[in-house]
């Protein structure tokens, strides 16, 4: 690994940093965006059951709010249940925006890494070519070692940049799709709760 970094030049260090950050973000988001953690069916079922029974305590709301992003949105709806439909919807939408921001956390950074990694690789390629041709101008074409070093630097940084960008982009798209799917689930359960609270739908 050190030999590879040495071969690619100083551009390899920001590329290495990008790879470490990307792996960290991907691992953290894969854990954080599990459906059972973001929108557990038990949270929505519990909220509907409490409404049906007419028994909603502060302790129950606190437990629901702390359990998941879906729970946070539903808890806001239950807290404002005695207000008008418009007020309840506005409160839920505001909570939903905060939940969406939480789910989107770090994804922009991952997308940025996917975008800049090829350019860093290209920068290494250009620097390698400059180094090679500069050396050839001084030593002449009779120095194949210098030529090989410049080409190796160019190819190493290009391959590394692409090797980081491709999986980063794949996971960025995958995680973005997962976030959108989870937000749809949260919105569906929130709308259902509003309809139940306002007597437009049965709780079960």
Which series of helices and strands comes N to C?
HHHHHHHHH
How many domain modules?
1
How does the helix and strand content classify structurally? mainly alpha
Shape: rod-shaped
> Which residues sit in consecutive blocks of at least 5 with pLDDT less than 50?
none
Kindly state the number of beta strands: 0
Q: How are the SSEs ordered, and which strands pair?
A:
Layout: H1 2-8, H2 12-32, H3 35-38, H4 41-53, H5 58-67, H6 69-79, H7 85-103, H8 107-139, H9 144-197
Written overview of the protein:
The protein is rod-shaped. The model has no long low-confidence stretch (mean pLDDT 86). It is built from nine helices and no strands. It has one domain (2-197). It has helices at residues 2-8, 12-32, 35-38, 41-53, 58-67, 69-79, 85-103, 107-139, 144-197. The N and C termini lie far apart (59 Å). It has 204 residues and is mostly helical.
Question: Keywords for this structure?
Answer:
9 helices, rod-shaped, 204 residues, 84% helix, mainly alpha
Question: What would you say about this model in short?
Answer:
With 204 residues, the protein is mostly helical. 84% of the residues lie in helices and 0% in strands.
């Amino acid at each position: 690994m050190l030999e590879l970094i040495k071969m690619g030049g100083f551009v390899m260090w920001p590329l290495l940093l990008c790879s470490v950050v990307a792996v960290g973000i991907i691992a953290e988001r894969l854990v954080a965006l599990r459906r059972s953690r973001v929108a557990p069916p038990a949270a929505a079922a519990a909220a509907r059951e409490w409404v049906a029974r007419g028994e909603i305590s502060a302790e129950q709301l606190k437990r629901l709010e702390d359990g998941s992003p879906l729970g946070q949105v539903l808890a806001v709806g239950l807290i404002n249940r005695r207000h008008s439909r418009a007020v309840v919807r506005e409160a839920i939408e505001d909570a939903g925006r905060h939940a969406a921001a939480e789910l989107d956390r770090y994804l922009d950074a991952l997308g940025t890494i996917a975008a800049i990694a090829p350019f860093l690789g290209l920068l290494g390629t250009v620097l390698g070519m400059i180094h090679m041709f500069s050396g050839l101008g001084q030593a002449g074409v009779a120095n194949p070692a210098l030529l090989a070093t410049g080409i190796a630097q160019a190819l190493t940084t290009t391959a590394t940049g692409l090797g980081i960008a491709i999986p980063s982009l794949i996971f960025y798209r995958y995680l973005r799709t997962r976030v959108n799917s989870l937000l749809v689930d949260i919105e569906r359960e929130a709308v259902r709760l509003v309809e139940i609270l306002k007597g437009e739908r049965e709780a079960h």
